[in-house]
């Protein structure tokens, strides 16, 4: 299936070919001047390889068109944006399991995961029934195949990382997530019990941001930070995968500022217990 990223890369390759043709140069001549293998020119022109900024600068200079260097760099920047913006429509076209497998791999490759959730329990801490209802509702909302059993199994497999002595998990959850109920009361009660029991476990730091907390920075949206290499932000229509140093620093600062207002340990348990007691289980 053609992705937005691949379509954009093919468009960049077509522009490179057009510029080379206009300059009256053969691909092998460009390769020779830049010290490349001829196959690299072919891969770039056919959208089979992503060029670097240096590749594009070299291409512009070799064809005698320094005036298009900025244009080519702009196309590369747009290509990067396509890679960062991952539409849910494409990711979930075959159901939830594929995206959950990606989450398993990301977690396996990460030592420290930090996250903020605003209105739901983090996937790493969800019970099977809570997760099942979340997946079912999202399938209905998006009109995608309900591969719920496979998705739940994969999410539970991902949670095995919580017991890996080489990993640690630092999560902030807004108190609203303890009350926003996407499921029947009995399922929510079981979910809150699990969350309560996770507080204080080794390698898991769970902070609850109370309703009345004074905040240096108001809560923006949910996000997850994987080591110091990747931030994932979810919107209704897409995921943003951010890897730039400035983005990483900004989200780390947001997490640290919010963590200042979070309750941990016994106070966090009290907040969870209060939410649990508010449920009508009759």
Q: Briefly, what is this?
A:
The chain has 282 residues and is of the alpha/beta class.
Question: What would you say this structure looks like, in words?
Answer:
With 282 residues, this protein is of the alpha/beta class. It has 2 domains: 4-86, lambda repressor-like DNA-binding domains (434 Repressor (Amino-terminal Domain)), CATH 1.10.260.40; 94-277, 2-Layer Sandwich (Endonuclease, Chain A). The chain is 51% helix and 13% strand. It contains 12 helices and 7 strands. The protein has helices at 4-22, 27-34, 38-45, 53-62, 69-84, 88-91, 97-108, 128-142, 148-158, 185-198, 245-259, 265-277; strands at residues 85-87, 112-117, 168-174, 204-209, 223-226, 230-234, 238-242. Strands 1-7-6-5-2-3-4 form a 7-stranded mixed β-sheet. A hairpin with a 3-residue loop joins strand 6 and strand 7 (238-242). Helix 1 (4-22) packs antiparallel against helix 5 and helix 4 (53-62) runs antiparallel to helix 5. The longest helix is centred in the N-terminal third of the chain and has 19 residues, at 4-22. The radius of gyration is 24 Å and the shape is elongated. The mean pLDDT is 92.
